[in-house]
Amino acid sequence: MAALRAGLLGVGMMGRHHARVLREIEGVDLVAIADPGGDPHGVAGDLPVLPHIEALIDAGIDVAVVAVPTRFHEDAALKLAAAGVHTLVEKPIAETVEAGRRMVEAFASAGLVGAVGHIERFNPALQQLRRRLEAGDLGNVYQIATRRQGPFPARIADVGVAKDLASHDVDLTAWVAQSEYVNVFAQTTFKSGREYEDMIAITGRLASGVIVNHLVNWLSPMKERVTIVTGEKGAFVADTATGDLTFYANGTIPLEWESVSSFRGVSEGDVTRFAFAKREPLRVEHEAFRDAVLGLPSDVVTMEQGLRTLAVVEAALASARTSHARAL
Known about the structure:
This protein is an alpha/beta fold. The chain is built from nine helices and 15 strands. The chain has helices at residues 15-24, 53-58, 73-82, 97-110, 124-134, 161-177, 258-264, 281-293, 303-322; strands spanning 4-9, 28-34, 49-50, 63-66, 86-90, 114-117, 141-151, 181-189, 199-206, 211-217, 219-231, 234-239, 244-250, 268-273, 326-327. Helix 1 (15-24) links the parallel strand 1 and strand 2. Helix 4 (97-110) runs antiparallel to helix 9 (303-322). The radius of gyration is 21 Å and the shape is globular.
């Protein structure tokens, strides 16, 4: 079977990595690159840098990756859908839920694969975590808490920290728990002089009853990417920056010191750090997209799922503006 002809729109900070991976995976040939801003990172190689999406489509591509700023996602995706091109759009799916809905409808009506680049689903620590939760290693799940913080990235200019970063946590939480959000409450701050929020704290609940908490900001000198899942048998801690997964077990040996035992509620048990293969998440994501286009079993993040994530994030932002919880 001939390799899929791939086009890439956008070769900025994220697009340069897409270019590298598209050249590495089997069954895909990167044949065209477009970016009206040129090639700042020198990733085009022998390919000319085309000026716009129309030129990319004219190159005769089967699949495309859209890695331009969020406000341009809808226009590019709708043109690609009209041209019959399967498309992976970087997260968030779009600037608004309405725009995302139009994208979902366009790809569904055309019978094309429309996917969103929620890369954290392909992080080895989170994939291991989900498998262990499905196997019952934690028993009943009580809470999922995430922390995602670090310095402000100058490359982000058109959205706030909620859509750029918190969308990761919303998507991975619903995916790991296999349960959708039913309500959220949030608070935001604006400390860096931009029109968009640079810190958000979200609390909410999933349909399964699991409580969720997300702390996300661009105001910390300390970079952190942590997901903690607490349940009846202990707690899993996934560090997605390193791909590590650790399990803190509830102890089974009763404490003889009664007052300490009643204070702690649960006793401390063994700590296990798991060893497993750690493949690059972006490569696994691209393989999933390729397989979905070929009609093979795939864990690709669909546009419908990406739209649901955006709806949760927008509900959180609306909650922050009104100081009231929002149902979903």
